Amino acid sequence: MAEAFTMNGGDGLQHVFRGKSDKQISLIGILQRAGSNAAKETMREVIFEKLDVRSPTSASNTFRIADMGCSVGPNTLFSMQTVQESIENKYPSQGFPPLDLEFQVFFNDLTSNDFNTLFASFPPNKGYFAVGVPGSFYSRLFPASSLHFVHSSFALQWLSKVPEQLLDKNSLAWNKGRIHYTSASGKVANAYTSQFENDIDDFLNARAKEVVAGGMMVLITLGRPDGTHHSKLPLCLLLDALGSSLMDMAKAMELTAPMSKTDVPVGPQDMVIHLRAGIEGMLAKHFGNDIIEELFERTSQKSAEISYALEIQLFVDLKRQ
Ligand SMILES: C[S@@+](CC[C@H](N)C(=O)[O-])C[C@H]1O[C@@H](n2cnc3c(N)ncnc32)[C@H](O)[C@@H]1O
Fold it and tell me: Which alpha helices (DSSP H) does the chain contain, by range?
């Protein structure tokens, strides 16, 4: 599962964008960046107020930052720039002399992530030493007490695996005919919740060992407004439309049979394209590439009425004692 989750890389994005106008492509970029932009000011504030690493180590002036689940860019580059600038400005803005720091940024994602696309997009004057770190952030990735700042945006919603009960025909949480919990029983939603609890525990335990005392972690992830049931959330409705399209196709044909290729329709469903950039790899691995075009065309049609007004994000900042 962890390996199936990677976002579309260089060629993959071209594939998703094929047939789209420049306006639509830039709208997708704007959607992806909107969440990070919203968090930018808050991130500056927490770094100014809470980060407490005046001298990274007695032996070195290297400040180490890690982005967990960086994908292929460009959001990770904007986020790392914000973190670096905020740290550089922190002490002068508080009346102290600037720290003489060198920055090292670790870009982490799963081994199947297209790191080459990310590396090729680095700006020439990025101002830090860059390192790619392949592997799951649910396990240890760095030596003990080696990181000063950890950032992760819109990645922790990816679980490490499908909760086992969902695949067990004898379980009350067997998720027959669905790919998600939107319209499923409470037992299915509980199975996802338990898996998330285990995963976030593993994530926090690993980072607790890797972050130095006084260092910080900022986690940005999807959330839902208080009092709103998950079945009302736009992303959940979109996943329901995707699951329902899969079921329609499963009833209409052999999923593994080759299908004739059709052009990607140019429609108003930019959120569907956004979703596709995120999960096409996982679906293609499970069902094969041949169904992808038709699947997302059907999902566009089924999700035309969804309102995205309820979308919110959570911003969590944690300081290592
Ligand atoms: C939606 S993208 C977010 C990209 C970027 N952080 C942003 O804010 O635009 C989620 C990324 O998390 C990565 N990811 C998912 N599970 C992971 C894991 N266990 N370890 C490392 N990366 C993971 C995926 O491969 C994907 O690139």
Answer: 10-17, 22-50, 75-93, 115-120, 186-210, 234-252, 270-287, 292-302
**Domain boundaries in the chain?**
29-173+185-228+310-319
Q: How far is the CA of 32 from the centre of ligand 1 (A)?
A: 13
Kindly indicate the confidence band of residue 17, based on its pLDDT and cuts at 50, 70 and 90: very low
Measure the CA–CA gap between 97 and 300, rounded to whole angstroms.
55
Q: Which residues of 266-281 are buried (b: 16+ CB within 10 A; e: fewer)?
A: eeebbbbbbbbbbbbb
Does the structure show a pLDDT above 90 at 34? no
What is the whole-number distance in angstroms between the Cα of residue 296 and the centre of ligand 1? 21
> CATH for 29-173+185-228+310-319, among 2.130.10.10, 1.10.3720.10, 3.30.43.10, 3.40.50.150?
3.40.50.150
Q: How far does the centroid of ligand 1 lie from the alpha carbon of residue 49, in Å?
A: 28
Q: Which pLDDT value is given to residue 171?
A: 87
Pocket of ligand 1 (CB under 6 A): 2, 5-7, 32, 36, 69-71, 75-76, 108-110, 113, 136-138, 153-155, 158, 160, 278
CA–centroid distance, 186 to ligand 1, in Å, is: 27
pLDDT digits (tens, 9 = 90+) for 44-100: 999 999 988 765 655 678 999 999 999 998 899 999 999 999 999 988 888 877 778
pLDDT on residue 271:
78
By alpha-carbon position, which residue is closest to atom 13 of ligand 1? Answer: 69
For residue range 175-223, what is the model confidence (pLDDT) as tens digits? 888 888 888 888 888 999 999 999 999 999 999 999 999 899 999 988 8
Which atom belonging to ligand 1 lies closest to the Cα atom of 152?
Answer: 6
Q: What torsion do the CA atoms of 70, 73, 78, 79 make, to the nearest 10 degrees?
A: -10
